[in-house]
């Protein structure tokens, strides 16, 4: 097995193994420990102290401190004047450079900007990942923006979002498909309007296939609705993701978005239609 030398002088596998005795919680070792600290730092944009980080990670303080030292030497973490740790500039540089250079991001960004400007609401691009959607891009309107729960890299339940349902629709074409997808884990009820039964979700996905777009009528977040269309950015026949306009219900009713679906599709242009 290939090993790597880490900064605390120990040798650890790079294959993601954990160690722990019988009855004890498995503890992170080697590179896994450093990666766990890095991921945890991303949850604290205002910084986090060593004591709190140690408690959350569940490793001894010297161990977490050594991991932070390795990350700081690589430029992936930094320590402020108050002793709190944050993600380093090198990590941010790599993340943003990679994100902005993605082919789909380059093609989608101008569309999202046009949608946000046209409706004065937030536009998203998201992809499906199992039972969740992951937001790859987000553009807020020039004025009047209200912070939504979505963020680039963030996740929401697929069944409760327009982007999720428009991507599930071509995959789950029967009630049996929906039931198998749900399995033994109940669907999360985000709001009173969330579709949480196989029959309700199956009916909505069937309607979505028939009309070619999905709606979220305050199903993921109270006071927020959205309309979503599939996007063919990387494949001529399979949606790479979906675009949505997410709007405050009091400012842009769902009916307004539905009435403008042809205009939204036109702004997407060739990205809105499968082709051969």
Q: Largest sheet at a glance?
A: 6 strands, antiparallel
Class computed from helices, strands and strand pairing: alpha+beta
> Per DSSP, what share of the residues sits in E-state strands of 2 or more residues?
15-25%
Average pLDDT number? 82
Euclidean distance between termini CA atoms = 46 Å
Shape: globular
Count every beta strand, where a strand is a DSSP E run of 2 or more residues: 12
Q: Please state the CA-atom Rg, rounded to the nearest Å.
A: 22 Å
Helix content, binned percent: 25-40%
DSSP summary: helix tally: 10
SSE string: EEEEHHHEEHHEEEHHHEEEHH
- Low-pLDDT residue intervals, each spanning 5 or more residues: 1-29
Oligomer: single chain
What's the arrangement of strands in the largest beta sheet? 9-8-7-12-11-10
In short:
This protein is an alpha+beta fold. The N terminus is likely disordered.
Describe this structure in words.
By secondary structure, this protein is of the alpha+beta class. The protein has ten helices and twelve strands. The strands form four sheets. Strands 9-8-7-12-11-10 form a six-stranded antiparallel sheet, with helices on both faces. Strands 1-2 form a two-stranded antiparallel ribbon. A two-stranded antiparallel ribbon has the order 3-4. The chain starts with a strand and ends in an 8-residue tail after the last helix.
């Amino acid at each position: 097995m290939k090993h790597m030398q880490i900064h605390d002088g120990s040798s650890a596998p790079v294959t993601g193994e954990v160690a722990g005795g019988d009855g004890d919680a498995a503890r992170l070792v080697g590179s896994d420990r450093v990666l766990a600290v890095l991921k945890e730092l991303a949850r604290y944009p205002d910084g986090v102290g060593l004591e709190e980080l140690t408690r959350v990670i569940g490793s001894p303080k010297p161990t977490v401190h050594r991991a932070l030292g390795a990350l700081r030497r690589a430029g992936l973490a930094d320590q402020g004047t108050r002793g709190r740790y944050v993600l380093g500039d090198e990590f941010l540089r790599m993340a943003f450079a990679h994100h902005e250079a993605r082919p789909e991001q380059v093609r989608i960004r101008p569309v999202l900007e046009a949608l946000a400007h046209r409706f004065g609401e937030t536009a998203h691009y998201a992809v499906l990942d199992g039972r969740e959607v992951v937001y790859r891009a987000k553009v807020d309107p020039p004025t009047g923006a209200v912070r939504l729960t979505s963020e680039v890299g963030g996740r929401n339940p697929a069944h409760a979002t327009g982007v999720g349902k428009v991507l599930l629709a071509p995959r789950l074409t029967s009630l049996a498909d929906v039931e198998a997808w749900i399995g033994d884990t109940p669907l999360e009820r985000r709001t009173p309007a969330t579709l949480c039964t196989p029959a309700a979700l199956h009916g909505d996905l069937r309607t979505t296939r028939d009309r070619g777009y999905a709606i979220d009528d305050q199903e993921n977040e109270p006071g927020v609705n959205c309309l979503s269309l599939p996007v063919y950015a990387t494949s001529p026949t399979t949606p790479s993701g979906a675009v949505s306009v997410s709007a405050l219900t009091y400012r842009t009713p769902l009916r307004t978005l539905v009435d403008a679906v042809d205009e939204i599709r036109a702004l997407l242009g060739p990205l809105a239609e499968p082709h051969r």
